[in-house]
Amino acid sequence: MSINDLFFSLGIAFALGCDAFAVGLAVGTRNPCRRACFRLWFHFGLFQFLMPVIGWLIGNSIYEHVKEIDHWIAFTLMFIIATKMFKESLATEEESEGREDKDPTRGWSLVGLSIATSIDALGVGFGMGIARMTLLKPAIIIGITAGLMTHTGISLGRRLSATFGKRVETFGAIILYIIAFRLLYI
């Protein structure tokens, strides 16, 4: 890998990792346990690695059919999760205790967040395939960078939550709404 390819890969990885960082920040405001943090940064890194590979493999014919709605899919997933998080941030402690599924790092919430934050990586992989670029090393760099940026976002979100309390969780949900609407313009 040449130095130009390395800088290209790092630049793309950072750009793609910004959504993962922002979601990590939002989730971090909820003070997740260590396992939840691991699940989030691991899955975000994994999906950011896999999506360029999938994009590279599917080629132009399939991508042409989905490219018109991919941003709507990502928007819907992110919007639903943001709404759920926003409602929970406004709930009183008694209301929150009655809910079993409060962890966005489990089940379909985790899958939805992982897809929504990595859908743009699918397009990057597709573009790399069209340009006949090698994929494995850039995909690894993208995945690792997304995982690290998610971890950093979670850590920062925890610190902000400890300082500002439950209001930061509301702010985290608002960040997810902003990302959701930004996904409409991909």
Describe this structure in words.
The chain has 186 residues and is an all-alpha fold. It has one domain. The chain is 83% helix and 0% strand. The protein is built from seven helices and no strands. Helix 1 crosses helix 2, helix 2 (34-66) crosses helix 5 and helix 3 (70-90) packs antiparallel against helix 7 (167-183). The radius of gyration is 17 Å and the shape is globular. The mean pLDDT is 81.
Topology:
Layout: H1 3-28, H2 34-66, H3 70-90, H4 93-97, H5 107-130, H6 136-164, H7 167-183
Helix pairs in contact: 1-2, 1-5, 1-6, 1-7, 2-5, 2-6, 3-5, 3-7, 6-7
List its traits.
186 residues, mainly alpha
Task: Provide a compact summary of the structure.
With 186 residues, the chain is mainly α. Helix content is 83%, strand content 0%.
Count of structural domains: 1
pLDDT averaged residue by residue: 81
Secondary structure tally: strands: 0
Biggest sheet details? none
Rg over alpha carbons: 17 Å
Beta fraction: under 5%
Distance between the termini: 29 Å
Helix count? Answer: 7
SSE succession? HHHHHHH
What general outline do the C-alpha atoms trace? globular
Q: Give the fraction of residues assigned to helices.
A: over 70%
Pairing-aware structural class of the strands and helices?
mainly alpha
Uncertain parts: none
